[in-house]
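Just scan this pair:

***
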Amino acid sequence: MNKADPKKFRVKSFGCQMNVYDGERMNEMLVDQGMTRADEGEDADLVVLNTCHIREKAAEKVYSDIGRLRKKDGSTPMIAVAGCVAQAEGKEISRRAPTVDIVVGPQAYHRLPELIARAKTGRKALDTDMPANSKFDVLPVRQKQARPNAFLTVQEGCDKFCTYCVVPYTRGAEISRPWADLIDEAKALVDGGAKEITLLGQNVNAWRGADQSGKDRGLDGLIRALDRISGLERIRYTTSHPNDMTQELIEAHGDVAKLMPYLHLPVQSGSNAILKAMNRSHTTESYLKILQRVRHVRPDIAISGDFIVGFPGESDRDFEDTLEVVRQANYSQAYSFKYSPRPGTPAATMEDQIAPEIMNERLQRLQALLNEQQHAFNRQAVGRTTQALLERKGKLDGQLVGKTPWLQSVHIIAPDLAIGDMVDVDIESAGPNSLAGRLNERIAA
């Protein structure tokens, strides 16, 4: 049965920042096709679920979301499932959820207009190819941003094949976008109002490309080029792999004022035996040496990380080694998760899977230590004056929330200021997850 031509759409993105970027590009592409975004609470003719496969039971949550998609009149909109779950599940999505009209992987979403045209004829549309031509070549020019911070994907895919991870299978091999394309997109973002750009990649520090003179450059060279863009005030990047943390990139943290003093560098475990089982090509010793080198050039840098608790075979000793690495690294913040098997990954069939109750207990202990470190890091800011980029409204009248250079959220009452303002803030108090302060009136005057 033919479907109505969709006029209003909604893109709902889950998971990582790269998914947020992909969601933004889908929004821009659909607007470029003449559609309009549905307002909050308004029915959409097309709903795109831009999925993530990292979290536990990600696929089941997608099916739950599909089941809740109904218009106010009880009819079902055109439904597209995009992202990593779409790539991993493929035809299974259409079989389990007949209301889904389109299934499209993260490397093929630039073909959404063609898939929508097919779905309008009543045929199911599936595209989980990883085409040789880059999707970035056919996406529309970046539109004006609604917020002062923007994401820019510079690298996609992964060649590391960690035994717990689906990314190499859902995002494909590592590719780096061309230098000129990235410089042009960054300038468009700044022209559209962005003051801060976060460079994204599955292994963002694996980016390599030839500059305008043909010279081979790493991520440090790209950062130094972005530093010269007038109007761009802050640069960040995530997520990095320890094996791609070059000395040149480390030195950029000491040389480039616009590169914020924040580094997200996942270690995943503090046990060398578990790291080997994960196929992580670093050791705890090499990881801690990287942190030491970074802190040598930028002593005030905030370090963030990722941890997986309860990986198959993790002993009590292995877990204690993880706690010891946390103590030595002294994180400003970190993300920690219980291991959950991903179908098709080597770790899913490993022996010595850890009992859920053991994983729960270990995760609570790890998070208690990480939370303690984060709160201590935040308390160090009290009494200081720091710069904040105001990003959104707070819950109180006249309240705005911004980010410090160290990626801490800071709340201020400033009814005369606006989102996008860069202001100096006197930090008055610190909680586990955010700071509170007031506008520094002496500097503002």
Q: What stands out?
A: The longest strand covers residues 385-393. The longest helix spans residues 356-379.
